[in-house]
Specification:
Helix content of chain B: 40-55%
CATH superfamily of chain B: P-loop containing nucleotide triphosphate hydrolases
GO molecular function (chain A): GTPase activator activity
Largest interface: A-B, 33 and 32 residues
Order of helices and strands of chain B: HEHEEHEHEHEHH
Strand order of the largest sheet of chain B: 2-3-1-4-5-6
Structural class of chain A: mainly alpha
Distance between the termini of chain A: 37 Å
Helix content of chain A: 55-70%
CATH architecture of chain B: 3-Layer(aba) Sandwich
Strand content of chain A: under 5%
Oligomer: heterodimer
Largest sheet of chain A: none
InterPro entries (chain A): Rab-GAP-TBC_dom, Rab-GAP_TBC_sf
Main location (chain B): membrane
Number of strands of chain B: 6
Shape of chain A: globular
Number of domains of chain B: 1
Order of helices and strands of chain A: HHHHHHHHHHHHHHHHH
Pfam family, one (chain A): RabGAP-TBC
Radius of gyration of chain A: 20 Å
Largest sheet of chain B: 6 strands, mixed
Shape of chain B: globular
Protein name (chain A): Rab-GAP TBC domain-containing protein
CATH topology of chain B: Rossmann fold
Strand content of chain B: 15-25%
Radius of gyration of chain B: 17 Å
Number of strands of chain A: 0
Number of helices of chain A: 17
């Protein structure tokens, strides 16, 4: 990660190139990844000297949103207190239910013991999603947002100065979430389903891409009447968060966030790679076998997927 | 093409109901005998199949689509219930809105899947009796009014779950057997049981519509 180096200005292009090739190190407690994501999502400007001021301003602004929509900038640690203060608020209840169930197997979100941070972290997630829904009434809250926000929040809470200010990680994650969500917003809007911007159009595009890059496996799945909507809907709406090991999800996100082209296109190319990677098994399978394999993706070295995706040629006419 | 599937007495079943009423939990209790308080919300219909030994010594395969509860994800719903043999409608006894949602599902099903589809209603979370909002008799009366079987279930306490799915499988098997006996043309050699022939017909009919997407 030399691109992050010591220069006054981060070489964003070089950074993206490294990150999209699986080059973000895992062995520094996730600090590099937090920084890479912030830069790739343009939350932080290229000029290093402006980072501190940028973060300070954003965190203050987020603090004001919390005051406006969540009544308090501090969060309580009592389990259930967040929702108890909002009974009858349907939006809050829905967010509460989903956040309560986020990655039940991960210590980060479920560290509920004495001095446990799990409760506080979940409250920060609830607040962020609530603020987002209030600021974006056209979208509100849709299931899946909690997974996306959770993923970003996890990464940013690991960054070096996460404890610098209350709500710092939550605020950083809020703006990064807003940025990435903006790109996939149409997928979440039901009114757009039938249009060429909505999720169905994206699933059709994936099908077309599969026909180009893997005609044999595509043909087999078509024969089985097994459509992309049956397995890739979750890949697309949750950006892989429920389908791979968390460490692998982060790798896939590195690639997507750093993509020099559109992130949507990058996502679809990763989806194609996921299918091609198990193509030989799929071709021998019946409907039930293929369905199970695609919905419960077999263990994989995630770099196989990212390399397969990177190797797909661009610009083939359909 | 899908040998194993064609050979079996297979039925397509779809689970419907509002978010968080316990559809996935019911299915996981039934198929894997597990339960988790923190079941992840389902955003994409999930496919599970289970071979069931019937009381009449026969067997059936239930191919179950566990659908997403949140309204947002219903765009793709019809492909899961269009060719379904049965729909299991689930509500949470502590949430009367979820009971209303079952009623609107039934209307939608009637329009798209027709009246042939078998229905069952599961009044789930029966372990939360103290917080009950929908009375058992309301549930039963409604189920009767739409010609559906009614089950009081708790995925958590493992009450009534196996019975519900078993009953759905038995009813579907009987229905298929009956339609074979009634429809019987001459000239086909079958192994004595009318059902196997009816199954063939049913599958041939299904091809153009749903193919192997059982």
């Amino acid at each position: 990660m030399e691109a992050l180096g010591r220069d006054d200005e981060v070489d964003a292009g070089r950074l993206k190139l490294l990150a999209s090739d699986g080059g973000v190190p895992d062995d520094d407690g996730g600090r590099a990844r937090a920084m890479v994501w912030k830069v790739c999502l343009e939350y932080l400007p290229k000029e290093r000297a402006r980072w501190e001021a940028t973060e300070r301003a954003r965190r203050e602004e987020y603090g004001r949103f919390l005051e406006e929509f969540c009544a308090s900038t501090t969060t309580t640690t009592t389990s259930g207190a967040w929702i108890d203060a909002r009974r009858g608020d349907e939006l809050a209840e829905q967010i509460d239910r989903d956040v309560a169930r986020v990655h039940p197997d991960m210590h980060f979100f479920n560290d509920e013991g004495e001095d446990g941070e799990g409760g506080r972290r979940k409250d920060e997630m609830r607040n962020a999603l609530y603020v987002f829904a209030k600021l974006n009434p056209g979208v509100g809250y849709v299931q899946g947002m909690h997974e996306m926000y959770g993923c970003i929040y996890y990464v940013l809470a690991n960054s070096a100065d996460a404890h610098a200010a209350p709500n710092a990680a939550a605020a950083d994650a809020f703006y990064c979430f807003t940025e990435i969500f903006g790109e996939f917003r149409d997928v979440f809007v039901m009114e757009l389903d039938a249009t060429d911007q909505g999720v169905r159009a994206l699933l059709d595009e994936l099908s077309d891409m599969l026909a180009v890059h893997g005609p044999e496996v595509h043909g087999h799945l078509e024969d089985l009447n097994l459509t992309t909507s049956m397995y890739a809907f979750r890949w697309i709406t949750l950006l892989f968060t429920q389908d791979f090991e968390f460490a692998d999800v982060l790798r896939l996100w590195d690639v997507m966030l750093a993509s020099p082209r559109s992130r949507k296109e990058c996502l679809l190319r990763l989806c194609v790679a996921c299918v091609l990677n198990i193509g030989s098994e799929l071709i021998d399978g019946d409907f039930a076998t293929c369905m199970k394999m695609l919905q419960n993706y077999p263990p994989v070295d995630i770099r196989r997927i990212t390399r397969l995706a990177a190797a797909l040629p661009y610009g083939i006419a359909r | 093409m899908t040998g194993a599937q064609s050979a079996s007495n297979a039925f397509k079943v779809v689970l419907l109901g509002e978010g968080r009423v316990g559809k996935t939990s019911l299915l996981l209790r039934y198929v894997e005998n597990t339960f988790s308080e923190t079941q992840t919300p389902t955003v994409q219909a999930t496919y599970l199949s289970k071979r069931v030994a019937l009381e009449n010594d026969g067997a059936a395969t239930l191919n179950v689509w566990d659908t997403a509860g949140q309204e947002r994800f219903h765009a793709l719903g019809p492909i899961y219930y269009r060719d379904a043999d049965a729909a299991v409608l689930v509500y949470d006894i502590t949430d009367s809105d979820s009971f209303d949602r079952v009623k609107s599902w039934v209307k939608e099903l009637r329009q798209i899947a027709g009246s042939e589809i078998s229905l069952a209603v599961c009044a789930n979370k029966s372990d939360l009796e103290r917080a009950r909002k929908v009375s058992q008799s309301d549930g039963e009366t409604y189920a009767k009014s739409i010609g559906a079987a009614f089950f009081s279930t708790s995925a958590k306490a493992d009450k009534g779950v196996a019975q519900a799915f078993m009953s759905v499988a038995t009813a579907l098997d009987a229905k298929r057997g009956k339609s074979a006996a009634g429809g019987g043309g001459a000239g086909t050699k079958t192994s004595g049981v009318g059902r196997s022939r009816s199954l063939k017909i049913a599958e041939e009919e299904m091809k153009p519509r749903g193919g192997d997407c059982c």
